[in-house]
Design goal:
CATH topology of the largest domain: Nucleoside Triphosphate Pyrophosphohydrolase
Helix content: 10-25%
CATH superfamily of the largest domain: Nucleoside Triphosphate Pyrophosphohydrolase
Number of helices: 2
Structural class: alpha+beta
CATH class of the largest domain: Alpha Beta
Distance between the termini: 22 Å
Strand order of the largest sheet: 5-6-7
Protein name: Nudix hydrolase domain-containing protein
GO molecular function, one term: coenzyme A diphosphatase activity
Shape: globular
GO biological process, one term: coenzyme A catabolic process
Radius of gyration: 16 Å
Domain Nudix hydrolase: 1-123
CATH architecture of the largest domain: Alpha-Beta Complex
Keywords: Hydrolase, Magnesium, Manganese, Metal-binding
Largest sheet: 3 strands, antiparallel
Length: 156
């Protein structure tokens, strides 16, 4: 499974940015001082009905970040070009049904350092939305079924 760093808010977290940077430090060793938070996206709903709030940040000094994965949570750390998530390359989609609604599930194939990764589901959906915001253009493919309605959210 490929996923983004993240997790539940702790009592000491001031906001979603605090939660995101704390979790990134715990999971991949990312020093919060290296991150400039740009924006917070609209929440997504996980298949388990949990509210997921994507936080977009930029590394102030990419060379200063030396990933140190938490072996209890992470097998590998890699980066992928964000723009690939709005291009219609190395991508496929399937129509699925969830809670009585038909929706599109996206899959992106990515290879780096002779390792192949399949980025799909909620992670792919978040990266598609993040890329659309950052590049200020919609994806070159249908992001979601026009008739899909998101069920109600559960607090995080």
């Amino acid at each position: 499974e490929v996923s983004l760093p993240g997790g539940k808010a702790d009592e000491g977290d001031k906001d979603d940015g605090d939660t995101a940077t704390r979790e990134a430090k715990e999971e991949i060793g990312l020093d919060p001082s290296l991150v400039n938070i740009i924006t917070v996206l609209e929440p997504f709903l996980s298949k388990h009905l949990l509210r997921v709030v994507p936080v977009i940040g930029v590394l102030n000094d990419r060379k200063a970040f030396k990933p140190t994965p938490n072996p209890a949570e992470v097998d590998a750390v890699f980066d992928a070009p964000l723009e690939m998530f709005i291009k219609d390359e190395n991508r496929s989609a399937e129509e699925r049904e969830w809670m009585g609604e038909k929706y599109l599930l996206h899959f992106f194939d990515y290879e780096i350092e002779n390792k192949r990764y399949l980025i799909w589901g909620l992670t792919a959906g978040i990266l598609i939305r993040a890329a659309s915001v950052v590049y200020q253009r919609p994806p070159a493919f249908l992001e979601q079924s026009p008739k899909f309605k998101v069920p109600g959210l559960v607090d995080k």
